[in-house]
Specification:
Helix content is about 70%, strand content about 0%. The chain is mostly helical and about 100 residues long. The longest helix is centred in the last third of the chain and has 40 residues.
Length: about 100
Amino acid sequence: MSTPEPTESQPGTPRKGPLSFLSGALTSGLLAWVCLGLSVRVVDWYSLHPPHYSKAFAQSIGTAMKTLVVGMSFLATFTFAFVALGLSLVFIRSLLPVEKGEAS
């Protein structure tokens, strides 16, 4: 039984160009900026409205939920920012000339 050839080695497959890297970096950077604004608003809201419950167990759950919401918003922010940084570096690298030994 023969193994199929990888799709990257086929001569008709187009490679990604610098424009796709740039558009991805700009999109991810825009989403990181939007997530940063959302994260700042979440932190502001929770600083003005801290959870107040009469039972210690409810207070613990409220604090845990606050931590999760703030953490997830900043996780999204930094994820999009690192993707934008990586795609920006790939964009810059794609503009540099390729040596014959590096082409694969």
